[in-house]
Design goal:
The chain has about 120 residues and is mostly beta strands. It has no helices and eleven strands. Strands 2, 4, 5, 6, 9, 10 and 11 form a seven-stranded mixed β-sheet that branches.
Length: about 120
C-alpha cells in the first residue's frame, strides 16, 4: 500500500525548532521529488520546499529560505523538513507529497500525506 505519513509536528515557542518527518511506504521515495506544503488556518495551501528526485536540487519559498532545510534519508525511505527560527506566521498543517518533478505549479504530484499540525506560540 502506497502511503506517506507525516510526524513531528507540535507546539513550539517563537524562535524554536522542529523537524518534520515524511515516511514513505509502498514505493521508493528517492525516485521522486519530495514536496513540503503548508496550509495556515483559513488560507490556501502553499508550497514550502521541494527536493528533486534527479539530482537532489532544493527549492524554498522566500518566506522560509534560510530557516528551513529539506532533506531525505535513502535507507529510511523518509523525507525531512528541519524548521528553525520559527515565527508566529509559520503555524499551519504541514504535509508532504511525492511528485515526478519539482515545479512551481506542483502539477506532477503522485502521492500525498495527510499532514501534521505545527503551532508556534509562547
Amino acid at each position: 500500500q502506497v502511503q506517506l505519513v507525516e510526524s513531528g509536528g507540535g507546539l513550539v515557542q517563537p524562535g524554536g525548532s522542529l523537524r518534520l518527518s515524511c515516511a514513505a511506504s509502498g514505493f521508493t521515495l528517492e525516485h521522486y521529488a519530495l514536496y513540503w506544503f503548508r496550509q495556515p488556518p483559513g488560507k490556501e495551501r502553499e508550497g514550502v520546499s521541494c527536493i528533486s528526485g534527479n539530482d537532489g536540487s532544493t527549492y524554498y519559498a522566500d518566506s522560509v529560505k534560510g530557516r528551513f532545510t529539506i532533506s531525505r534519508d535513502r535507507a529510511e525511505n523518509t523525507g525531512y523538513l528541519q524548521m528553525s527560527s520559527l515565527k508566529p506566521e509559520d503555524p499551519a498543517v504541514y504535509s508532504c507529497a511525492a511528485a515526478l518533478y519539482c515545479t512551481k505549479e506542483a502539477d506532477t504530484i503522485r502521492y500525498r500525506g495527510q499532514g501534521t499540525q505545527v503551532t508556534v506560540s509562547s
